[in-house]
């Protein structure tokens, strides 16, 4: 089954499943072969060619969810992202990136692009005009990430995509935070969608994987680069990812619903100074978020009031785990100042609005009363 007009949960459950012709089992078999017969077949299958049965079938599910023609599965989000960049950028080219992007992406750009003579500009802000100002004659790609980490700023996907089209520039988006359940950027004119499948697509904090979804033409271009670099995902893990994605719609909807409730509740608490969540009407880009997201996502941030110290607060939590990653079914949180943004100076953090009391919260599927109770006991216990 391939039809992307199917409902989201049906796509999650069925699209790209491999029929078990031999035993009629209910789920896709795993094909672990790294060697396939080449006689009388058109397709030369090999894991690093990204075309083993499990890889190609799972790619159909991701493409259907992202409303694209094709997709590729990688061993990590960074493998997906780096191959995508290197497929479209060569020496002398220029890329525009949003000023707040995932730390790993930032490191890749800073450490690798200079070696390759690829120029880059980070925008000053999030407005379409900020992207426009950063464009140069040799700009080949604009890369965005919305909602952003950790302050959940929203970038105008359609605005940036149409600006880029006017200048004959490609656009790529890191859609990890929203997931295809809450945001399908292809509908707003973006060319390439990228995911760290380690996050929502996997959803159980036990798989490292990445994905890219795009037109067949762009996927072919990326494939040409990727087959040289490697970075394919083991078929055993591909199978696990397929298994996880069957519940993607259910999980993300439940997490998103919980996040909205938590954001509204936190917003009313005396121990909280500020809540950052695109689903709050007080969020400066609430309307924009509403126009391009189906749900506001399950990531939020909040700032504790001055009486609290973020590490102390986190140590007192009993249910919610302090954890570096995000998007699992279990709620986790972290302090950006101590983790993802610890390499910035205090002045840089201040400038970007990341205070020492800011907490980034990845909301899970637990019962909302238990999450509230855990936070309450942490702020009241001595
Ligand atoms: C985690 C993450 C990545 C990188 O993915 P890995 O699977 O860790 O390589 C990229 N972008 C965002 C937004 C992420 O959260």
From TrEMBL:
Cofactor: pyridoxal 5'-phosphate
Taxonomy, superkingdom: Bacteria
Key words of the record: Lyase, Pyridoxal phosphate
Signal peptide positions on this chain: none
Modification N6-(pyridoxal phosphate)lysine, positions: 199
CDD domains assigned: CGS_like
UniProt xrefs under Gene3D superfamilies: Aspartate Aminotransferase, domain 1, Type I PLP-dependent aspartate aminotransferase-like (Major domain)
Gene Ontology MF, one: carbon-sulfur lyase activity
InterPro entries: Cys/Met-Metab_PyrdxlP-dep_enz, Cys_met_metab_PP, PyrdxlP-dep_Trfase, PyrdxlP-dep_Trfase_major, PyrdxlP-dep_Trfase_small
Record GO biological process: transsulfuration
Family under the similarity heading: Belongs to the trans-sulfuration enzymes family.
Entry protein name: Cystathionine beta-lyase
Organism: Aurantibacter aestuarii
Lineage: Bacteria, Pseudomonadati, Bacteroidota, Flavobacteriia, Flavobacteriales
């Amino acid at each position: 089954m391939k039809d992307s007009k199917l409902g989201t949960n049906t796509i999650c459950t069925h699209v790209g499943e491999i029929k078990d012709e031999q035993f009629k089992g209910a789920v896709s078999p795993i094909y672990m072969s790294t060697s396939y017969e080449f006689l009388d077949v058109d397709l030369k299958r090999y894991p690093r060619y990204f075309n083993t049965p499990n890889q190609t079938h799972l790619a159909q599910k991701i493409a259907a969810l992202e409303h694209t023609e094709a997709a590729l599965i990688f061993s990590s989000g960074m493998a997906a992202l780096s191959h995508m960049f290197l497929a479209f950028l060569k020496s002398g080219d220029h890329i525009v990136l949003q000023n707040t992007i995932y730390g790993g992406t930032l490191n890749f750009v800073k450490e690798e692009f200079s070696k390759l003579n690829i120029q880059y500009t980070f925008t000053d802000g999030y407005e379409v005009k900020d992207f426009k100002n950063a464009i140069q004659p040799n700009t080949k790609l604009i890369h965005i990430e919305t909602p952003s980490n950790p302050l959940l700023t929203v970038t105008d996907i359609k605005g940036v995509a149409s600006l880029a089209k006017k200048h004959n520039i490609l656009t790529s988006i890191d859609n990890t935070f929203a997931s295809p359940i809450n945001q399908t950027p292809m509908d707003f004119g973006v060319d390439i969608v990228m995911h760290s499948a380690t996050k929502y697509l996997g959803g159980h904090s036990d798989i490292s994987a990445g994905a890219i979804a795009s037109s067949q033409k762009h996927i072919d271009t990326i494939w040409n680069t990727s087959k040289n670099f490697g970075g394919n995902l083991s078929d055993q893990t591909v199978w696990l990812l397929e298994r996880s994605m069957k519940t993607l719609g259910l999980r993300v909807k439940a997490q998103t619903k919980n996040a909205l409730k938590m954001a509204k509740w936190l917003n009313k608490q005396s121990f909280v100074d500020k809540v950052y969540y695109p689903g709050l009407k007080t969020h400066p880009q609430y309307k924009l978020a509403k126009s391009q997201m189906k749900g506001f996502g399950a990531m939020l941030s909040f700032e504790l009031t001055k009486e609290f110290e973020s590490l102390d607060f986190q140590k007192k939590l009993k249910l919610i785990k302090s954890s570096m990653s995000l998007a699992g079914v279990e709620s986790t949180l972290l302090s950006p100042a101590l983790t993802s943004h610890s390499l910035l100076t205090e002045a840089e953090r201040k400038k970007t609005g990341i205070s020492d009391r800011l907490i980034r919260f990845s909301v899970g599927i637990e019962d909302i009363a238990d999450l509230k109770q855990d936070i309450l006991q942490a702020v009241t216990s001595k």
